[in-house]
């Protein structure tokens, strides 16, 4: 998110891609980053892959609905 905010501030014609797994989506820092990016209208694409590597709890027990 920081790189996207820097690009916005520099008026750079670019977009940042943030790639992460579903395990990161259960952390508070991820949601803070989503909110920061949305509030400041940062040029960023969040790409979440359900790669099955979250070691704490299966996604079926972490999220409501069918997947992320």
Automatic annotation (TrEMBL):
The keyword Transit peptide applies. Keywords: Mitochondrion, Oxidoreductase, Thiamine pyrophosphate, Transit peptide. The keyword Isomerase does not apply. One of its GO terms (cellular component) is mitochondrial matrix. It is found in: Mitochondrion. One of its GO terms (molecular function) is branched-chain 2-oxo acid dehydrogenase activity. Gene3D superfamilies: 3.40.50.970. Residues 2-65 form the Dehydrogenase E1 component domain. It catalyses: N(6)-[(R)-lipoyl]-L-lysyl-[protein] + 3-methyl-2-oxobutanoate + H(+) = N(6)-[(R)-S(8)-2-methylpropanoyldihydrolipoyl]-L-lysyl-[protein] + CO2. Its EC number is 1.2.4.4. It comes from the Eukaryota. It holds the Pfam family E1_dh. Heterotetramer of 2 alpha/BCKDHA and 2 beta chains/BCKDHB that forms the branched-chain alpha-keto acid decarboxylase (E1) component of the BCKD complex. The branched-chain alpha-ketoacid dehydrogenase is a large complex composed of three major building blocks E1, E2 and E3. It is organized around E2, a 24-meric cubic core composed of DBT, to which are associated 6 to 12 copies of E1, and approximately 6 copies of the dehydrogenase E3, a DLD dimer. Interacts with PPM1K. Together with BCKDHB forms the heterotetrameric E1 subunit of the mitochondrial branched-chain alpha-ketoacid dehydrogenase (BCKD) complex. The BCKD complex catalyzes the multi-step oxidative decarboxylation of alpha-ketoacids derived from the branched-chain amino-acids valine, leucine and isoleucine producing CO2 and acyl-CoA which is subsequently utilized to produce energy. The E1 subunit catalyzes the first step with the decarboxylation of the alpha-ketoacid forming an enzyme-product intermediate. Belongs to the BCKDHA family. This is 2-oxoisovalerate dehydrogenase subunit alpha. The lineage of its organism: Eukaryota, Metazoa, Chordata, Craniata, Vertebrata.
């Amino acid at each position: 998110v920081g790189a996207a905010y820097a690009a916005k501030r520099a008026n750079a014609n670019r977009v940042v891609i943030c790639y992460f797994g579903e395990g990161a989506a259960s952390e508070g820092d991820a949601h803070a980053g989503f909110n920061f990016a949305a509030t400041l209208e940062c040029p960023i694409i969040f790409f979440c892959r359900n790669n099955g590597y979250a070691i704490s709890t299966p996604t079926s027990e972490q999220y409501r609905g069918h997947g992320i």
